[in-house]
């Protein structure tokens, strides 16, 4: 069993050699394609960089260029991982890309991988994330967009889970108790201690960790499905009628509620509670049509809420980590939103009274 800390931040990357990119497009991609321009794109919290390549002679008329922090460095996950030791012989991004593509999931096509330069030439899904598509939309449009996202999620959970593929990296790592606890501890370390600038009382720390372990054991004991791990509104791209899925390289096996909680308890978009209820019902209905039936919907909702607590606390701690360690403060503004979900769920279940009692004094948003 290994639970590894994410890799330390790398130094800033020099932009890719535009002459090399132009030569690669002409030599390795569809005949007649010519590079017209290269524009940097806003990245995520990772060590990768992204560029849009404008090309003539297509289709395609544009490509996404993913630049790895170092040519082979992407073989290590930037998230903590847990599971049996497994030799990684290819980039997790490409490994998971292949698996999801076979499962019929709309992931970006790989046009070419320049392994020496650490450059991946990928299909361009455009600039419109699900978050942007719903940010100013009316209720019916928001509901339709999220039902589409749930349809894609059900496709992933059903078609990418079985049959199990030993060649897919996701099947060799899982949300087990050590990993779930690592994420809880990540919140204590950054979401409380680093954020406050002083340590916790040992009695509170012990009590909180005990309650975290109860939740971790419950989640780890659930049947496991293929889990994207970061299935939210900024990793889903609205491209015409289809919904493209990106940022899946940290996929593993986990409880069915994990990606659903990532989607519906999103750090970037807060959905109306009535809509959340309806979408959970829609998700269960879609699963039932695939003969995956949750007979006790109340038990599923409790599991969803407990998963949300784990996921949202991890996100809050992660956002502080990204600020303090990676020097990127842009996610700090999203912390109150994810902690508001935690506050709601802590108040919902009497069994969480002890956790709420010991945790609340350290987190202003929970008070």
From TrEMBL:
Enzyme class: transferase
InterPro entries in the record: Aminoglycoside_PTrfase, Kinase-like_dom_sf
GO molecular function: transferase activity
Domain of life: Bacteria
Database matches in Pfam families: APH
Keyword check for Transferase: yes
Protein name: Putative Phosphotransferase
Native source organism of the sequence: Nitrospira moscoviensis
């Amino acid at each position: 069993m290994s639970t590894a800390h994410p890799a330390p931040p790398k130094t800033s990357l020099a932009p890719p050699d535009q002459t090399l990119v132009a030569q690669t497009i002409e030599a390795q991609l569809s005949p007649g394609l010519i590079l017209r321009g290269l524009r940097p794109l806003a990245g995520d919290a990772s060590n990768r960089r992204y560029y849009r390549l404008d090309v003539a002679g297509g289709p395609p008329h544009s490509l996404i260029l993913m630049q790895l922090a170092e040519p082979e460095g992407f073989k290590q996950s930037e998230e903590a991982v847990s599971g049996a030791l497994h030799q990684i012989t290819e980039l997790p991004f490409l490994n998971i890309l292949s698996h999801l593509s076979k499962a019929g999931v709309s992931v970006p096509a790989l046009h070419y991988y320049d392994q020496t330069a650490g450059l991946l030439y990928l299909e361009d899904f455009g600039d419109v994330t699900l978050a942007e598509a719903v940010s100013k939309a009316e209720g019916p449009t928001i509901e339709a967009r999220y039902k589409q996202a749930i349809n894609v999620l059900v496709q992933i959970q059903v078609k990418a889970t079985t049959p199990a593929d030993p060649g897919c990296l996701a099947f060799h790592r899982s949300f087990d108790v050590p990993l779930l606890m690592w994420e809880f501890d990540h919140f204590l370390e950054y979401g409380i201690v680093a954020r406050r600038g002083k340590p916790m009382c040992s009695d509170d720390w012990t009590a909180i960790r005990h309650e975290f372990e109860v939740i971790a054991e419950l989640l780890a004991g659930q049947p496991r499905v293929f889990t994207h791990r970061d299935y939210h509104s900024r990793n889903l791209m609205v491209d015409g009628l289809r919904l493209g899925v990106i940022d899946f390289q940290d996929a593993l096996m986990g409880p069915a509620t994990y990606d659903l909680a990532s989607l519906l308890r999103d750090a970037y978009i807060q959905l109306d509670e009535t809509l959340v209820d309806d979408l959970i019902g829609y998700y269960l209905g879609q699963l039932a049509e695939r003969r995956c039936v949750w007979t006790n919907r109340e038990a599923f909702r409790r599991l969803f809420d407990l998963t949300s607590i784990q996921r949202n606390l991890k996100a809050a701690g992660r956002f502080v980590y990204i600020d303090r360690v990676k020097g990127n403060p842009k996610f700090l503004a999203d912390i109150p939103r994810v902690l508001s979900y935690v506050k709601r769920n802590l108040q919902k279940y009497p069994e969480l009274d002890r956790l709420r009692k010991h945790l609340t004094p350290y987190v202003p948003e929970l008070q």
